[in-house]
Write the structure tokens for this entry.
Amino acid sequence: MRIGVICAMHEEVDLIRKDMQSDKIETIAGRDFHIGKLYGVDTVLVVSRIGKVASAITTSILIDRFNVDKVVFSGTAGGVDPKMNVGDAVVATSSVQHDFKVPGGDMFRIPLLDISYLPTDEELSKKAMEAVQEYISNDMLNDIPKQYLDEFKIISPKVEMGVIASGDEFVCSKERNNWLYENVKDIKCVEMEGASVAQACFEYGVPYAIIRVISDCANDDASVDFDLFIKEAACHFTRGTVKALFSRLG
Ligand code: ADE
């Protein structure tokens, strides 16, 4: 079994790569695909780059050229459900492109596929949920330096399952946040890649899971929080959850 692991940011892949054995790199479409064993699992690790087009291209290459059997995406998101705080995590039940708009039919419907909310793989997502729970309870508060736990006000982080919305937009206004909360069913958070990774996986028939840690509250302060969070917290979260997930993939 070979797993494709995708992160949106270089910082996350740079940290995970340190744990990869016999690291070999193939460059396709400007992306470095890291091939090797990660925590005992045959893995191809790559940065998706930012946005739906970039991540769909990356996912297609992973599936078509590297024959991965499953895809796992891990990264950050902006909280939309008011219960989600910085440091909390979301494992997707399904994902939706919140900027997809064509006349007729359901909101966000993808023509020809005739579906709006693309379901994640149940078994992989259940294992992802357990993995995040394990990481949050055992390691997260030690991995992130105290100074940043205080700065991000992370006290007792939680993980929830729900819908993740993706669009080619960094959401940083209360108005857009409210619109998402009112229009996307069961939404937990917003990001820029998950639903396009999902569409590529859906069309190729490859199981996938999306794990996201909340870096900001997708409001007027969002861009201020984001960069620091990636550097000081998200990298550790991604590494820790992928490690815990891979130990369950036997
Ligand atoms: N990724 C992390 N925070 C985000 C936000 N506020 N909007 C879109 N993508 C994000």
